[in-house]
Design goal:
The complex is a heterodimer of chains A (about 180) and B (about 350).
Chain A: E1 8-11, E2 23-26, H1 27-51, E3 56-57, E4 60-61, H2 65-87, E5 95-98, H3 99-122, H4 124-139, H5 144-165, H6 174-178
Antiparallel strand pairs in A: 2-5, 3-4
Helix pairs in contact in A: 1-2, 3-4, 4-5
Chain B: H1 2-14, H2 17-35, H3 41-48, H4 57-82, H5 91-102, H6 106-139, H7 144-161, H8 166-181, E1 183-184, E2 191-192, H9 206-223, E3 229-232, H10 238-247, H11 252-267, H12 271-286, H13 299-314, H14 316-322, H15 327-332
Antiparallel strand pairs in B: 1-2
The chains are: A mainly alpha (about 180), B mainly alpha (about 350).
Chain lengths: ~180, ~350
């Protein structure tokens, strides 16, 4: 890439997935897996609704009536989808995700899970400070001071909005307790 | 006349410093989420929804609609400067907006975009103001059978008019309705689908579903792509704005046509995306010089932007008057993210 002229703005993505990365799986495989999972879900929920009553009692529909038929629709549509996906020719299925893409999605997904777990004992504000700083530094490759400053300003602005201005109760941890909030 | 009295009353409620400040904050946040590719209006509203938790209903609606409007416009900024539509309905804006930016006329294109969004929204708001009370009065006489019929029609139109494969739409709707059915049955009081897990007693919180299915899935999808940007910088001065406004009356046919298309497609479940393309295509069709479209013609920004905003605003009519959500909330109760919608 040539350096941008004065009229141009350029933002780079240093950890972007390469376009020629090898495919991990095809859309066909992904769809088959999802249809099977949906079918299993429909069977499980359908069974539970059948158990709690899917008929019509004297006083109206029983509690499982509507959800049971929703499960029937869900199961039917999943079987239909599974059928047409399996009947499609195998060679024409496009790539669902490449190895690089999967790596990047995992890089975001795992920290997000950790963020949810950390929120329980660190509190929302400290956890989001760590999350934003981590993303900026390790995925965006942005300088340390910029990452730390931005995430601090972000976390502090959230704290000021939710806790101070609007009195919304969010999970808080030991650091907020130090300041007596 | 009653509509005008009500409108004036509405302005009286809104014209307080607190509400005006909330509007500014909402618009800023909205433009911000609109500019970020992948995070558009509906997602922005979903993510920023917690901000309105403790507000009174008026402030909450003001804030949310400003976020929505800001995001509608934010999509146009990236379309013009970066050739990246921030939203699907700004795709048609890139056709002429980006060439204008390349020719150094980015400021004109941006002015055209925000002016036409104002005109489109204004036309739709006027329509809502005079039409909504009548429709709402009609809806007040609705009983359960009528509501069932209206929702049934809505769901059928999702399946029939959606661009996704039909069985996927069906799966998404069944999943959404099943999620909503978890917990205590409102008729019999019996528990269903909780599997003895107490927190499910009150069902799945709508917010949790919205943020999980909408927000997080959009972020993960965005991460699959290269996020590098290259675009043009622009400075808007009052002189440019006035220059564009002076030319505005020349395009009144285009503006009117696009507003009408937008209003119509907004009320029916066509949506802003269809409206913006239709606005653009019709402007091109009726133009004396169709070949100049796509090469940086200001009309090519006016037409899709007016239509998209008229439609985005008019879509509020069925929601406010009848309680039928448009595409955006519907997607939130569906697992459409994996069907690539």
């Amino acid at each position: 890439m040539s350096p941008p002229s004065a009229q141009e703005i350029a933002v780079d993505d240093p950890t972007a997935p390469e376009p020629d990365s090898p495919a991990v799986t095809t859309t066909r495989t992904a769809e088959v897996v999802v249809y099977v999972l949906l079918l299993a879900l429909a069977l499980l929920l359908g069974f539970d609704n059948w158990r709690s009553g899917m008929g019509w009692a004297k006083d109206g529909p029983q509690s499982g009536y509507l959800p049971f038929y929703l499960c029937v629709i869900l199961a039917g549509a999943s079987v239909f989808g599974l059928g047409i996906t399996l009947l499609k020719r195998k060679e024409v299925s496009p790539t669902f995700v490449t190895r690089d893409q999967l790596r990047r999605v995992t890089q975001v997904f795992i920290p997000t899970l950790l963020f949810c777990a950390a929120m329980q004992w660190l509190g929302l504000y400290v956890a989001s400070f760590l999350l934003v700083a981590g993303f900026m530094r390790f995925i965006g490759r942005i300088a340390w001071w910029k990452s730390l400053l931005t995430s601090f300003v972000f976390a502090f602005a959230m704290f000021a909005t939710f806790d101070v201005a609007f009195d919304v109760i969010m999970p808080k941890g030991p650091i907020e307790a130090l300041f007596g909030r | 006349m009653e509509a005008i009295t009500l409108l004036l009353h509405g302005f009286a409620v809104l014209l307080t410093w607190k509400t005006l400040t909330l509007m500014m904050i909402g618009l800023l946040l909205g433009v911000f989420v609109g500019v970020l590719p992948g995070l558009g209006g509906p997602n922005g509203v979903a993510i920023l929804l917690p901000l309105t938790f403790t507000m009174d209903p008026t402030s909450a609606i003001v804030m949310l609609s400003c976020i929505y409007w800001g995001a509608l416009f934010g999509g146009a900024i990236t379309s013009i400067l970066f050739n990246i539509p921030g939203e699907a309905w700004s795709v048609a804006t890139t056709f002429d907006g980006y060439p204008m930016a390349q020719q150094g006329k980015a400021a004109e294109a941006l002015t055209a975009a925000f002016t036409s969004s104002f005109i489109g929204s204004l036309v739709a708001v006027i329509l809502i103001t005079f039409l909504a009370p009548r429709i709402a009065g009609f809806a007040l006489r609705f009983g359960p059978p009528e509501f069932f019929a209206v929702y049934f029609l809505t769901f059928c139109s999702f399946v029939g008019l959606g661009r996704e494969e039909k069985h996927k739409t069906l799966i998404s709707m069944a999943l959404g309705l099943l999620l909503a059915a978890i917990g205590m049955d409102t008729v019999s009081g019996q528990l269903r689908m909780t599997f003895g897990f107490d927190p499910l007693l009150r069902g799945v919180n709508f917010l949790v579903a919205v943020i999980g299915l909408f927000g997080i899935s959009e972020i993960l999808l965005t991460m699959e792509e290269r996020l590098a940007l290259r675009g043009h910088s622009a400075k808007i001065s009052l002189r440019v704005v006035l220059k564009v406004w002076k030319e505005l009356p020349r395009y009144w046919v285009t503006l009117l046509r696009s507003s009408a298309i937008g209003c119509w497609l907004g009320i029916t479940p066509g949506g802003a995306i269809a409206a913006s393309f239709m606005g653009y295509n019709l402007a091109k069709r009726f133009s004396k010089d169709p070949a100049s479209f796509g090469k940086g013609r200001i009309e090519g920004v006016f037409a899709p932007e007016t239509a998209a905003h008229a439609s985005g605003t008019a879509a509020l009519l069925p929601m406010l008057a009848l309680g039928i959500p448009d595409r955006a909330p519907r997607r939130s109760c569906s697992a459409a993210s994996w069907s690539g919608a």
